Description:
It is a single chain. This protein is of the alpha/beta class. The chain has helices at 14-27, 42-53, 80-89, 94-109, 117-138, and strands spanning 2-5, 31-40, 61-65, 71-79. It has a four-stranded mixed β-sheet, with helices on both faces. Helix 1 (14-27) links the parallel strand 1 and strand 2 (31-40). The two termini are 26 Å apart. 26% of the residues are buried.
Amino acid sequence: MVSFIHDNFLTLQEPDLAHWLSSVAQREGYTLDRLEYNFVDAETLFSLNQEYLQHNTDTDIITFDYTETKAIQAEAFISYPALRRNAKLNGQTIENEVLRLLSHALLHCMGYNDKSDEEKNTMRLKEEECINLFHVKHGYV
């Protein structure tokens, strides 16, 4: 089950997003058990970052991965203001930035990290693959 908690923010169809995320997981040998995405304000995400990760910085996403098998269980918190800012800074549409962050959380649950420069490069390539897969499967431009 994939769920999206937001205030009428998503313009992409939630069933399309859930199907796409499931396809991404299947390509890596995983299934989706419970995956929840929460779109929150910057203050909420900053507070979560401090409380759970002891980081005193802003971020665009935090993923809590509870996966113990190949059935993914996780919740992600995404800063809607950071998402909008990143889209603008990177010359991306809001929709593509949403796809990047959704896939970013899922990729973390499948063992991809982004601590080192090499890991960040791999993560970016995987995110791009995921975004392209969404557009091919669902015909969004």
